[in-house]
Amino acid sequence: MRRTSRGLAVVFSLALIVALVAAAVATARWTTVRVGNLVFKIEGRLAPRAFPRHEFAPASFRTRAEIATADGSHPPALREGIVYVDRNGTFDAHGLPVCTTGQLQARDTRAAKRACGNAIIGSGSGTAEIAFAEQAPIAVRSPITIFNGGVKGNTTTIYLHAFITVPVPAAIVSSFKFTKVKAGRYGMRGVAKIPVIAGSAGSVTSFDFKIKRSYTYKGRRKSFDLTKCPDGVIRVKGAGVFKDEVRDGVDDGKTTTISASLKFPCTPKR
Q1: How confident is the model at residue 8 (pLDDT cuts 50, 70, 90)?
Q2: Which end of the chain is flanked by fewer CB atoms within 10 Å, N or C?
Q3: Stretch 149-154: mean pLDDT, rounded?
Q4: CA 162, CA 165: separation in Å to the nearest integer?
């Protein structure tokens, strides 16, 4: 198959609403969703296990995922993610130092941490596959550092920073904006924008990161991630937008959609 790195303008969209089902057990298990040739695996963990029924308490969240194809070919590129978060989970970034996207662009991991170390709210790692025409795919790995981007109105912004060295050194800065909503069970809607990697030749193949940050503001100890547990479960549903390879420079506009939901068990404190 012929591939090109001409950029986003020549890449067509494969829309995939990734909503994943997990059993309400002590820890979340890998959940696998397959649509056509695309295979998506995800796992999430919420800690601690027990939370107050009616008051928010400090929490941490870890998620990891793998993106592949059933036939082993180069996977489509993740470009956008959409997630709805249970109204019993929220973020509190008021008083937390803020980082801007300009402070992260064109910086490697060490330089990004120097520029915005006080705004770090999480970390992990990720991998991508770079596939140029008539070349064997190249696997690249990078640390992921997550920064607080600040609060404006009802929207909290976070930035995910990665740095690759193939084909040339480049920072990859993804924005994730969480806005408070009233949508039944869900109280936040998050939209992530993932930039083009290596001129559209790169696709994310895995990520594993944890969000956890405690800080002090006006003499009060606070936590970025907050959760309460009134009924024994925290619900999340998500969406992912993938852009597949261009075949001979032609955008055929094909889309594929699936849907479901993810549940995290928790124990209400009495």
Answers
A1: very low
A2: C
A3: 95
A4: 10
